[in-house]
Amino acid sequence: MPAVPDRLDATDARLLLALSADPRATVLSLAQTLGLARNTVQSRLARLESGGVLDPFERRVRPEALGYRLGAYVTVQVVQRSLADVGEALAAIPEVLEVIGLSGVADLLVQVVAVDADDLWRITEQVLAIPGVQRTDTNLALRRFVDHRMTPLLERAAGTAPVDGG
User: Fold this and answer.
1) pLDDT, tens digit (0-9, with 9 covering 90-100), for 33-81
2) d(CA 19, CA 11)
3) pLDDT, tens digit, for every residue of 145-161?
4) String of b and e for 7-38 (b: at least 16 CB within 10 Å)?
5) For the whole model, what pTM was predicted?
6) What are the chain's domains?
7) CA–CA separation, 17 vs 92, rounded Å?
């Protein structure tokens, strides 16, 4: 994956906000909305895409739509020399959505989805069977209070964020 640029400018942030508001917007409509030349919008979008700024489209698909109604976060303790191998093995499990390296007692935070409790049991057994995994702790996701979001940060970068009240 390409390195993400250090910093986006206000125009990039405005472009991403417009794209977030209308993901199917054409380059021409984005240019009109933002008051920019079509070529400017096109080159900036190409740079943002090739620079790894935009996540893959699959991030927008909700697991529930595929029948995976149960979500969980599994913390995993790993034999240190096995981190890379454990990461590869986790990537081979389709229900594993994301794996994040942590500092602290747990080494990895693994986001998984399951059809039901029995399916979650199967998945956690699969994780425990990976060579190098020492211990897991599974926490059910009961409710999402804040969806993944970038709009407040983009608004700040674009200079359009509301002013704090105090």
Assistant:
1) 999 999 999 999 999 988 888 887 788 889 999 999 999 999 999 998 9
2) 12
3) 998 889 999 999 998 87
4) ebeeebbbbbbbbeeeeebebeebbebbebee
5) 0.81
6) 10-58 (1.10.10.10), 69-141 (3.30.70.920)
7) 34
